[in-house]
Amino acid sequence: MRFLLIWSLCACVLSLDTVDAAPPASPQSFAGTGEPPNSGSPHPDATMPKLRSQAKLGTPFGVEVVEDRFWITTIDDHCVYRGLLGGDSIERVAGNGMVGYSGDGGPALKATFNWPHEVRCDDAGNLFIADTRNHVIRRIDGVTGIVITVAGDGTAGFAGEDSSGNEVRFNQPHSVALDGEGGLLVADTANHRIRRIDLSTMAVTTVAGNGKKELPPDGSPAQGCSLFGPRSLAVDKSSIWIAMREGNSVWRIDRRAGTIHRVAGTGKKGYSGDRGDPLQATFSGPKGLAIDRRGRLLVADTENNAVRRIDLSKQTIETVMGGNAAPHSCELKRPHGINVIDGTVVLVADSENHRLMTDAR
């Protein structure tokens, strides 16, 4: 009888543990069918919301999340899409489905873009878009939906320091980030510089980079240092975070001291270092960055088909999606844009699988 009583108590405890234990999180499809849209013809003028699960998203690149809303840029049809995180639909808000550079001064839905690589939304609902192959930064008014070019003249080059508008030239700007101080940071990738647009005067200045295609000395002043393919930016109060594609590494500009520091990656191309020191790890063409609520960096390690997470408090790095974690997560194909929902849930553009995926781990 005593044995039966003990056995019953143990079974009860095991049962309670089983009930209370949450199942391990797993990646889920957020949007996209996995197929690209038909290309070569413009989208209808009228855009209607469609189910996220039924939307054909052709090579999604940029991902923005602000409160209860999200935005996606797509490369195959050169458009921007929007939806509510709590809803199940998505709608086109910019681009007519054709490649080009037209439509300034009119509705964004009738405008053309050329590889809109990234999108950011300010507090007023205005969108800023890195229109990469048009070599310009464009803005969509949050109230009227009218699109304009903020900076750049549509020609690849480097010009316009302390100038504005079409006196400025970029060369394949890939990333934009609001700096929280009235400015928009631009990863001027092929110029190997980070530039800043003052959103009150529209003047453009260089924050880091001198045009030389090489990694900077660790700890050097950011102003005037070299950069090697700055591809993605993330910003918090103390730092500007930079993923360098050609430099296969992640860096940080200390906003107070004005110095630049290597955070992860040796600079050599590879896929190594998980569960170890991020400084000893290798990457292959990282193209996306985000920061979660706990201050951990999320890196779209694009050419390794992986999302990696850097915990700077523990000085460790791990693969959390795709790559060598694919057997217990999901397979990714050249992920680009990445962001965070509710501070912890990863939202990544699984670009060449034509979908977005989430993972709560």
Question: How many structural domains?
Answer: 2
Number of strands: 25
The rounded Rg comes to 22 Å
Percent of residues in beta strands = 35-45%
The end-to-end distance, rounded to whole angstroms, is 44 Å
Q: Biggest sheet: strands side by side, in what order?
A: 2-6-5-4-3
Helix content: under 10%
CATH architecture level-2 label of the largest domain: 6 Propeller
- Give the class-level CATH name of the largest domain: Mainly Beta
Structural class: mainly beta
Q: Uncertain spans, ≥5 residues at pLDDT below 50?
A: 1-24
CATH topology of the largest domain: Neuraminidase
Shape: globular
The CATH H-level superfamily of the largest domain is TolB, C-terminal domain
Profile the largest sheet. 5 strands, antiparallel
Give the overall average pLDDT: 91
Helix tally equals 1
**What series of H and E elements makes up the topology?**
HEEEEEEEEEEEEEEEEEEEEEEEEE
Q: In a few lines, what is going on in this structure?
A:
By secondary structure, this protein is mostly beta strands. Helix content is 5%, strand content 38%.
